[in-house]
Design brief:
This protein has five helices and no strands. The protein has 74 residues and is mostly helical. It has a domain of 40 residues. It holds the Pfam family HTH_3. This is XRE family transcriptional regulator. One of its GO terms (molecular function) is DNA binding. InterPro entries: Cro/C1-type_HTH (IPR001387), Lambda_DNA-bd_dom_sf (IPR010982).
């Protein structure tokens, strides 16, 4: 199981639950590894709007009904 013992944000928990890795998120969302790491592990991190859009496009491939408000404090 992925993510055991790691501090995880809502997105980190979501991708772990669905069996995806941060590397998968990087490839699908076309974001950097450092950005993906911060998004998945730091609940206080506030990414740019363009990054949120890229991540949500990738998340919606898993769950078409996902909303940005579910994962980011906006």
């Amino acid at each position: 199981m992925w993510g055991i013992g790691k501090k995880r944000s809502k997105i980190g928990k979501f991708i772990d639950k669905h069996g995806y890795s941060q590397e998968d998120l990087c490839k699908v969302a076309k974001i950097g590894r450092n950005t993906a790491s911060r998004i998945c592990s730091d609940p206080q991190y506030s990414p740019s709007l363009s990054t949120i859009q890229k991540v949500m496009k990738a998340i919606r491939k898993i769950d078409p009904n996902a909303k940005a408000d579910d994962f980011f404090d906006m």
